[in-house]
Structures are given as structure tokens and as C-alpha cells.
Design goal:
239 residues, alpha/beta, Rossmann fold, 10 strands, globular
């Protein structure tokens, strides 16, 4: 049984996430399907890492395990010294808060809330003091200080993704995952969003994972981890 206590694992302070012998399988024999297997990965704090691979290679599944959104079939995931795989659901939700930020291909903004509210309300629900002040700061940092009171339908796709980035970074997470963050944007807007994402990564010193199938985007990260058929097949640091 997972524990409600936050078990601490002795890992170096420089390691943001460590996965050991991670595996994910769905179904039971004879319909048993292995999604991920034998994943060993240690990522340094403040690093930028691309998870590169074709569709179906397991990129989003690996992100879900590392972010504590899914539970592995085997192995462990240690984030900030906590073993996520030993926590129950309530403790896991608390542990993710402030440690993990996620930006997805779909923006997932609440249509009945303004840009400011989309960033501030999650902070309020998490008990953060000065939530609206922090939300204003984050939206200004992504260039939306004049669009605070606009609703998602009044914003372009690029602007909506900027709100999503501000929302993900507002809790000051140690790790930021970006899963195909430009997938719903045109090429020009996508380049602007990626420039912004890497700029905010440098400014906040959050560890950045970019999940992509685009080698050109992967080359912007300091480290590239390639997946194929649920396994890590290459792991290199960009020269």
C-alpha cells in the first residue's frame, strides 16, 4: 500500500528526478502490452532535456510517470528526494504541488475565467498568499500584462499558450514538463513560444523537459534522450 507519509530518499541535491528500472504495462495476458520498460534516468537540477521519439514511442507515458500523474508497473520515481511511487493519491497530489509544472499541447484554460484568474485561482486553491499579485507578475513575464482581463476566447492560440506557461510556472515548480507545447500553433507562433519557454527556464532555473518528435526542437535542449518502442535507445548531451 502506498503511504500517506512523504518518504525521503537520499539523492544528491543536484538531481531533480531519478527513475530506476521504470516500467509501464497495460492489460493482462494475453492482451498484455508493454508501454515502457527498463527506464533508468537521472536528471540534474536546472538542466534542459528533450524526450525525443516518434509517435507511440512512450514519450507522453514517461512524462506521466515522471510527473506523478500515472503509477508505474515497476520501478521508482524520486522527485526532489521524495519517492512518488510510495505515496498514496492524497500525498502524491500534495507532493506534486510546487514541484511539478506542466504545459500541454492543448491549453486547458477555463473558458469562464480571465487570463489572470486562470493563473491566480489555482494558486489560491493551493493556499498561496498574494495569488493575484504573483499571477500578474507571471503574466507580465510572458508579455501579457495588457491582456489580464481577457477570456481565452478573446486570446490567440499563442497568447493562450503564454497563459498556460504562466500558470505552470506560477507555483515556482522545480520541474517543468512541456508536452508538444507548439503542436496546436503555426510555425511562426511556435518558434516564439519556444523562445519564451527556454527564456523562462533560464530565468526560473526550473528543470525543463520538452517532449517532442521534432529533432530541431530537441536540439535546443542541453540533453537529448531518445525513446523507441518503450526503451531509451540514446542519451547524449549536446556539444
Amino acid at each position: 500500500m502506498p503511504s500517506s507519509a512523504p518518504p525521503s530518499i537520499a539523492v544528491p541535491d543536484s538531481i531533480a528526478i531519478e527513475a530506476r528500472n521504470l516500467a509501464l504495462a497495460l492489460g493482462r495476458p494475453p492482451a498484455h502490452v508493454e508501454i515502457l520498460r527498463e527506464i533508468d534516468l537521472a536528471v540534474s537540477a536546472a538542466d534542459s532535456v528533450a524526450l525525443l521519439g516518434p509517435s507511440g514511442s512512450g514519450k507522453s507515458s514517461l512524462m506521466a510517470l515522471l510527473a506523478g500523474l500515472e503509477r508505474p508497473t515497476a520501478g521508482s520515481v524520486v522527485v526532489g528526494g521524495l519517492d512518488f511511487t510510495r505515496l498514496d493519491e492524497n500525498a502524491l497530489a500534495v507532493a506534486r504541488r510546487g514541484r511539478i509544472g506542466i504545459v500541454l499541447q492543448a491549453f486547458h484554460l477555463l473558458p469562464t475565467m480571465t487570463a489572470l484568474e486562470n493563473v491566480a485561482v489555482p494558486l489560491e486553491l493551493a493556499g498561496v498568499r498574494g495569488a493575484f499579485d504573483r499571477a500578474r507578475e507571471e503574466l507580465a513575464a510572458v508579455g501579457l500584462d495588457r491582456r489580464l482581463h481577457h477570456y481565452p476566447a478573446q486570446l490567440s492560440g499563442g497568447e493562450q499558450q503564454r497563459v498556460a506557461i504562466a500558470r505552470a510556472l506560477a507555483p515556482r515548480p522545480a520541474v517543468l514538463f512541456a508536452d508538444e507545447p507548439t503542436g496546436n500553433l503555426d510555425a511562426a507562433t511556435g518558434l516564439v513560444i519556444m523562445d519564451l519557454l527556454f527564456a523562462r527556464h533560464r530565468e526560473t532555473e526550473a528543470t525543463l523537459f520538452v517532449i517532442t518528435h521534432d529533432p530541431r526542437l530537441a536540439e535546443r535542449c542541453a540533453r537529448i534522450v531518445e525513446l523507441a518502442d518503450g526503451r531509451i535507445v540514446a542519451d547524449r548531451r549536446r556539444a
